[in-house]
Amino acid sequence: AQSVTQPDIHITVSEGASLELRCNYSYGATPYLFWYVQSPGQGLQLLLKYFSGDTLVQGIKGFEAEFKRSQSSFNLRKPSVHWSDAAEYFCAVDNMEYGNKLVFGAGTILRVKS
Amino acid sequence: NAGVMQNPRHLVRRRGQEARLRCSPMKGHSHVYWYRQLPEEGLKFMVYLQKENIIDESGMPKERFSAEFPKEGPSILRIQQVVRGDSAAYFCASSPHSLGVGSYEQYFGPGTRLTVT
Fold it and tell me: What is the DSSP letter of B62?
């Protein structure tokens, strides 16, 4: 069965510093890949997605992610973090076997210190 | 264009009662998904429905849980005889009825936080 691993449960960065959140997946084919953000008590907002083509994808709020097939990774990056980026971030993979069934990682909680 | 609507946002039930969670997909979306988020965990797929059809219920517990998406009205996730372990956030997502990669984007509602006392 496919799985998604986010190895960092918590990450703390200083405001203005760069950020990289890691995501690795286990899946035979190239899946559809997503990053979502969840603020406390809120639903999930889609940051960006990868389906095919250019392996560097741009998303909202200044985020980007790079798909690396050889490493089965889809890491999320931001050059300069803002205090409002503090939230929980989820990487997800689309299980296309039955159409649309997202498999989520356990999430990474981002703390931003001023 | 209103987003995915879920109600209630918070629901408190005593053990043994029934919980009914509602989800109205985005306009033009005919695919609905339910996910459960237990405390300190990521979201876990429960069920995938299209209008009047259950497509994939591989993530649903075998007992006490059921889901429907009728021709008219919202999708309902029903939990009978709730237990403390059912306390979680339940999220609904929807996607468009279309072919191609656009159909793979899921838009999430704000969730229903169920507390079983």
Answer: S
**Nearest CA among A53, A5, A3 for reference residue A27:** A3
CB-CB: which of B48, B91, B103 is closest to A44?
Answer: B91
CA–CA gap between residue A49 and residue A34 (Å, rounded): 4
Paired residues of A63 in beta bridges: none
Say which of B42, B95, B110 has its CB closest to residue A42: B110
Residue that is written with structure tokens 């203005």 in the block: A16
Nearest-CA residue of chain A relative to B113? A41
Q: Which of B89, B79, B71, B94 is nearest to B24 (CA)?
A: B94
pLDDT tops 70 at residue B102? no
Residue that the structure tokens 């890491």 belong to: A75
A97-114 tens-digit pLDDT: 656 788 999 999 999 998
Question: H helices then E strands: how many in chain B?
Answer: 0, 11
Give the closest residue to B93 by CA, choosing from B79, B76, B110. B110
* Residue in chain A nearest B42 by alpha carbon: A106
Separation CA B21–CA B92 (nearest Å) = 9
